[in-house]
């Protein structure tokens, strides 16, 4: 399994796109594609070319992306980020070879799987062994139905917790934004882990 730090690459851009794309005080949030004002529960599109999550109005989400295949006016560049969340029974993620308890696993359109999570050195990314992932899928069949690039297995087993979820990738980037905001020192400090626990406690299942 290959491990690399990605403080300035695609993952960092994704975290910024989730945490920092906020309108100025008093300004309405707008669609990243057409600049139309957005409702609070607007859709998100995953931009495969820039590895960014983009806010979209309803019209652009229909025009530019197909929920199943990522096809539309964007010629496959944009994929609609689903909204479903499914809480899972415990998944043996230790067998996937990732040495951290706060991590998310994203199956990719090319068949590979990446694991991403925070560390004192910045955001880390691992390439997961394909055979190990298939064994995890065999033990937890809902993982086989995850949509590549836009859904993730999100895990938190730190401090004895047992959180295993299938979530849209923008949930993962929100979690990383919480970590980035609260992290202090080498271990995260006294504020970061309670903030992460609150994040997981507030997750709710959605169809």
Automatic annotation (TrEMBL):
<dbReference type="InterPro" id="IPR045991">
    <property type="entry name" value="DUF5947"/>
</dbReference>
<protein>
    <submittedName>
        <fullName>DUF5947 family protein</fullName>
    </submittedName>
</protein>
<dbReference type="Pfam" id="PF19372">
    <property type="entry name" value="DUF5947"/>
</dbReference>
């Amino acid at each position: 399994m290959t491990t690399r730090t990605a403080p300035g690459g695609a993952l960092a851009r994704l975290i910024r796109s989730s945490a920092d794309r906020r309108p100025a005080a008093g300004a309405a949030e707008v669609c990243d594609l057409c600049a139309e004002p957005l409702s609070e529960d607007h859709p998100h599109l995953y931009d495969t070319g820039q590895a960014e999550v983009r806010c979209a109005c309803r019209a652009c989400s229909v025009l530019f992306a197909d929920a199943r295949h990522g096809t539309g006016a964007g010629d496959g560049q944009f994929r609609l980020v689903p909204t479903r969340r499914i809480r899972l029974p415990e998944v043996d993620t230790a067998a996937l070879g990732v040495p951290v308890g706060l991590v998310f696993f994203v199956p990719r359109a090319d068949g590979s799987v990446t694991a991403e999570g925070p560390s004192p050195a910045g955001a880390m990314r691992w390439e997961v062994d394909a055979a190990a992932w298939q064994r995890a899928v065999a033990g937890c069949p809902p993982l086989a139905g995850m949509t590549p690039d836009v859904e993730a297995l999100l895990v938190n087993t730190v401090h004895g917790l047992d959180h295993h979820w299938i979530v849209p990738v923008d949930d993962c980037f929100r979690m990383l934004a919480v970590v980035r905001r609260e992290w202090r020192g080498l271990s995260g400090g006294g504020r970061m882990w309670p903030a992460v626990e609150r994040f997981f406690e507030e997750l709710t299942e959605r169809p």
